[in-house]
Amino acid sequence: MNIEIQALSISVDKKTLLDDIDLTIKPNELSLLIGPNGAGKSTLLKACSGDMPPSKGDVFINQKSIASFSPLELAKTRAVMTQSYQMGFNFTVIEVVSMGCFNYEEDISQVQKLDILQDVMHFMEIEHLAERSFMTLSGGEQQRTQLARVLAQLWLPYEQDEARYLFLDEPTSSLDVFHQYHVLSLAKALTKRNIGVLAVIHDLSLAASFADQLVLLNNGKMVTKGRPENVLQRSHLEKVYGIKAEYYHHSVAVKPSVLLDQQQ
Ligand SMILES: Nc1ncnc2c1ncn2[C@@H]1O[C@H](COP(=O)(O)OP(=O)(O)OP(=O)(O)O)[C@@H](O)[C@H]1O
């Protein structure tokens, strides 16, 4: 059980956004997508989550083509947090989080639902914001609220042995350093619950610290994928980002990071 992306290409108006991508997302791994602005990271996430149809190739979730999933089946199999999450109405935080329960709401009692909401809000440290208007929150508080919503969507195992997936587009972009680590640790912990996580991230040191599989995209193409120490090689960083930098891991007592040369 996994996600198999096979020879995936996506074109819009004759522009190729993704070109012949092959990739496996495993349920017991945290896969992080890196690459410069416009590389195709969000497009790949949308293709994996069923929000953008392939022009060529296919995406198989647990051996079934994504095109054959019903919207409810998809909602039970994967949750998605996109980059922008404007709310059309003035929802409170708890209302936003409870939207994550829509796919199983009818199967549980009100008390069970409140328990789930409490659990995920506790996880994301937003319990104190429950009755606040979402629109009045800071950027980081909004991001943590949306993360609680997608967690709620996957909180109940609907079939224990069926792998599920979480797609996160820049989940740490508005977060302070504590919450960046908190969210990526949480993403890693979810992989122990048979949930595969694919997240877009820009911070290369965070990527080096947390990825089981790191995927480097550039101009819609896969440059390389694998362990962070192999992907974050000097030659790749120079070719793709135009920076002189390298992966550095001083000792097991500290996390690895990507260090920039003094002279660029
Ligand atoms: N619907 C669309 N129509 C035309 N071009 C698009 C469409 N969606 C994305 N693109 C273009 O495809 C390229 C890849 O976009 P994408 O959002 O996947 O990049 P990204 O790697 O996520 O970038 P960033 O790091 O800036 O968020 C960009 O050049 C973007 O302008």
TrEMBL record:
Decide whether keyword GTP-binding is in the record.
Answer: no
Name the source's superkingdom.
Bacteria
Return the PROSITE patterns for the record: ABC_TRANSPORTER_2
Q: Does the keyword Translocase apply?
A: yes
Instruction: Please state what the protein is called.
Output: Iron complex transport system ATP-binding protein
Q: Which CDD domains match?
A: ABC_Iron-Siderophores_B12_Hemin (cd03214)
Listed Gene3D superfamilies: P-loop containing nucleotide triphosphate hydrolases
Q: Would you identify the family this protein belongs to, as annotated? A: Belongs to the ABC transporter superfamily.
Q: Where is the signal peptide?
A: none
Which residues belong to any copy of the ABC transporter domain? 3-244
Mention any Pfam family matching this sequence: ABC_tran
Q: Where are the transmembrane segments?
A: none
Gene Ontology molecular-function annotations = ATP binding; ATP hydrolysis activity
Q: What does this protein do?
A: Part of the ABC transporter complex HmuTUV involved in hemin import. Responsible for energy coupling to the transport system.
Keywords assigned by UniProt, alphabetized: ATP-binding, Nucleotide-binding, Translocase, Transport
